[in-house]
Amino acid sequence: MSDFLLATAGAILFTVAVGLVRILGGPGDADRMMAAQLIGTGGIASLLLIAAATGARGVDDVALGLAILAAFASAAFVNSGAPAEEPDPNPADDR
Amino acid sequence: MSVLQALDVGLAFLVFAVAAWTVFAPGPFAATVGYVVYGLLLSLVWIRLFAVDVALTEAAIGSGVTGVLLIGAAARLRGAETTPAEEALTGLTRLFAAGLCLLVAAALAAVVLLLPDQGPTLAPQSMERLPETGLGNPVTAVLIAFRSFDTMLEKVVLVLGVVGVWSLAADRYWGGAPGEARAERPEPTLAFFAQVLAPIGILVGVHVFWVGADEPGGAFQGGAILAAMWMIVMMARLTEAPQASAFWLRLALIAGPAVFLAAGVAGAVVAGGFFAYPPGLAKPLILFIETFMTFTIAVTLPMLVAGPPRREPRR
Predict the structure, then answer these.
(1) Do the Cβ atoms of B145 and B264 come closer than 8 Å?
(2) Fewer C-beta within 10 Å: chain B N or C terminus?
(3) A32 closest CA partner among B74, B59, B302
(4) Is B141 inside a domain boundary?
(5) What per-residue confidence (pLDDT) applies to A62?
């Protein structure tokens, strides 16, 4: 049974790897930022399968954390695309 | 080769490939995406090494907080993708830098491979004394009981970090708020997303902190997830960063180390040793300290990411 779970985890990881090749290739930044989401889904799936097969404790909490932080990273990417802050009107004062 | 070994080799290959992609990525933004993916993959590796606490920290700090910091930096650099100094770099200099990096990596790898199979370790002694703390998670016991003074000082370093960031502010912005003002009409998708994610994230953050006593988790991991949730609410501009001069903010920044230190001094009086816990009361005391630590971490990390004050203080 555990071999089956591990093989499934490997298969998912393989699809993630193939997906990463395509996504990280771009062409745009918006395409690339979906990579974090891909790990957020595929990575967590293989994480839970590996944990079930090897009996590591507390992994469900890591899965929860990863799910939230992967979504958080995507939001940060979106936010960085927002218009830049207004330039400093009189930067000479900074000295 | 068993299925598990094949999986490990595949995972290692994937991590290596993403690392290589990050180094050769076209532009800072793409490299940052690669770095975040790399961090998320590393937490898978830590799970395979049965270091679940480290996996949580890697996901929260390595990917979440550092990722946002780097994304912010990449966004600021967008206007000036290459500096004159960067253009002046010749192929030879780059080759030399790459060679130096490879040398350091090879030396580190050699040292790790040359380590004895059974290195010097205090793990058996820690596990032996674990019941005296009342905790079930040896990592938390080491952090808050066996080497509590170090942990307290680590939190002081975080506060010093915030002081360092704030001291970069221009004179007229001193005491003001970092980041942008609250939007009158927040960007709807981002605002909706933040409103959905933040409550769930806060619940998970508090949960990770609370189970840290007996299962993988703890103050730092829980605090980092809470910090990410505050950051996303600020990013969506549903709320704005507090002024650096706000009294409650300064109190929140020092609450963790202050309570920790007070408990340590109290230990010298009550339990007969600096940072000693009275027998039987260790676990409640540890959870009490950790509560304030979680709070301080959740406030400190967003302040580090938000950067120096960039607006004039309101009176």
Answers:
(1) no
(2) C
(3) B74
(4) yes
(5) 84
Pick A10's closest partner by Cβ from B10, B78, B231.
B10
* CB–CB contact B170 A93 (8 Å): yes
Judge contact between B277 and B267, C-beta under 8 A: yes
Asked, for residue B252, whether it belongs to a domain, the answer is yes
Token pair of B158 as six digits: 């975080």
Query: Locate tokens 């270091």: which residue?
Result: B51
d(CA B181, CA B190): 16
Contact A72, B66 (CB under 8 A): no
Q: Where are the beta strands (DSSP E) in B98-192?
A: none
Calculate how close chain A gets to B291, using CA atoms only, in Å: 19
- Here the contacts of B271-279 (C-beta below 8 Å, separation 24 or greater) are B274/B149, B275/B148, B275/B149, B275/B152, B277/B133, B277/B145, B279/B132
| Cβ–Cβ < 8 Å for B300, B294 | no
Element containing residue B57 per DSSP (H, E)? helix B52-57
pTM: 0.84
Within a 10 A sphere around the Cβ of A29, how many other Cβ atoms? 17
Q: Could you tell me the residue range of the domain that residue B281 belongs to? A: 135-315
Interatomic CA distance for residues B25 and B1, integer angstroms: 34
In total, how many domains does chain B have?
A: 1
Closest residue to B67, CB basis, from A16, A32, A73: A73
Decide if B250 contacts B166 (C-beta within 8 A). Answer: no
Question: Per the domain annotation, does B43 fall within a domain?
Answer: no
Q: What is the CB neighbour count within 10 angstroms for residue B139?
A: 18
Residue found under tokens 């912010």? B72
User: In this structure, are residues B223 and B266 in contact, taking their beta carbons and an 8 Å threshold?
Assistant: no
In a domain, B255, yes or no: yes
Cross-chain Cβ contact B14/A80 below 8 Å: no
Closest partner residue to B40 (CB to CB) among A43, A53, A80 is A43
In this model, does residue A84 exceed pLDDT 50? no
What is the Cα–Cα distance from B58 to B66, expressed in whole angstroms? Answer: 10
pLDDT, one tens digit per residue, over B4-50 is 788 888 889 889 888 888 888 777 778 888 888 888 888 888 888 88
Query: Which chain B residues are Cβ-neighbours of A36 within 8 angstroms?
Result: 33, 36-37, 40
What are the extents of the domains in chain A? 2-77
